[in-house]
Write a structure and sequence with these properties.
Length: 76
């Protein structure tokens, strides 16, 4: 299930939301919305755990971390 295309897509959506929130503090409000809980669920995460982690997040520390670059897998 880890490589399910739908889970990968919604995980990418969460990652992009984090990138937005790193640059724009107002974007962080989205993480406390029902939409964010739904996206977390679609990404295969427990929405309650996701919400708890987001509440405890130190955004100042997150904003300082560089974005991880993933190597693309070649299509054979």
């Amino acid at each position: 299930m880890l490589h399910d295309p739908a889970h990968m897509l919604w995980t990418k959506v969460l990652g992009l939301a984090v990138e937005d929130a790193k640059r724009d503090p107002e974007a962080r409000a989205w993480f406390h919305s029902p939409d964010a809980r739904r996206v977390a669920s679609l990404a295969g995460l427990d929405p309650d755990s996701f919400s708890r982690i987001v509440k405890e997040l130190d955004w100042a520390a997150v904003a300082k971390r560089p974005r991880k670059r993933r190597r693309r897998r070649s299509v054979s």
